Amino acid sequence: MDEEFIRNDRHRAEVAAMQNEIYRLKKNISDMEEKRIAESTADPCDPFGNPTEYHEYHDNYSEIQPLINSPGYTPEFEPAALERSNIRKFYAIGGWCNLMRFLAAYWLIRNVLKIIVSVIQSGNPQADGTAVAAYVESSSIIFGLNMLFFGLTNVGFAFLGMKLSGQRMSSLLKPKGFGFFDFVQYSVMGFSLWYLSVILGYFSSEVFSAFGIEINSSGSLPVTGIGLAVYALYTCIIAPVTEELFYRGMLLRTFSKSSQRFGIFSTALMFGLGHGNIHQFILGFIVGIFLAHITLKHNSIIPSITVHVVLNTMTVVLSMLELTRHEELILIKAQLILAFVGLMLLVLFRVRDKLPVTTPAQVRRGIPVAIGSLGFVLAAAAHIAIMIVNIYSIN
User: Fold this and answer.
1) Which of 122, 166, 316, 333 is the most buried (most CB within 10 A)?
2) Four-point Cα dihedral 144, 148, 154, 160, nearest 10
3) Closest among 90, 158, 112 to 305, alpha carbons compared
4) What is the pTM for the complete model shown?
């Protein structure tokens, strides 16, 4: 009897041990399967597994591809129809806002300027059209209109684009890891890029001149004190703040939904084209890449605003200086030294913080999708057309 009891007890122990081993094996299999699914499932905030991009700047990609949250799902090389449509929607939002901002500002300036000229002529019937145009050009009027309407349209269409694309203003204004030393470094780097663009602009003028084409009008500063004050206020403060809100704020995030590199270069292109002439296109494109890069790095437009303010203020100050030949030589030497220092800092910066690259799947979601967006294409085409018209009017 005792032996039978012992055998039964031993049998129960063996069964329990076997059940425990079965449970452990099932648990291991389950854990391994969960781990496999987790590893094969894309991160909604980094769906393409791109380690060169700035993770904090990413939005949740589920608004582009809802399947991204499905276990085991990873983006395909070619975007599916719904994904392509959603990406194109964001490109269209940015493109249409850019186009409408541009057209609205020029339409308002043109029509308000006509009213002002009519009022001036009615009050001075003896003045001819040339004299009135010269007065308007040299006074604060044209700069005041630029400040008012470009400032308003930059802000207005930035907020409209953010509203349509689901962005929050607060996400643009809280820089991470940005201090005074970064500000100084970025300003010097920005100066080196400005200096480079001046050189490239000079050579581009020489190339076009060889074919008898002038590509940039000389322009002139206002001659009145109020005009100079308005010009300085717009160029040094209003333009940098409102342009950064539009380009590196709304437009960069809207164009970076599937690829940060595409966002950087497409916004730099739009920023350069928006200036309407070859010299400033070169400047805007080169500096625009840098401003977008530091925006991504610090997840805020504050760094780009501060650098933009410094560069524009420097340009205004240099344009107002009346120097002797000796003073000009000293200034040129100082600029060369500062540009060299900025170039060295820029090289070190790019070694530590390289521009994001694109994966093959991201490439298929950049230009191939953007050229199918009517708003994106029309915005670029309209700016190119205006640049051509400006060159034609000079010649």
Assistant:
1) 316
2) -170
3) 158
4) 0.87
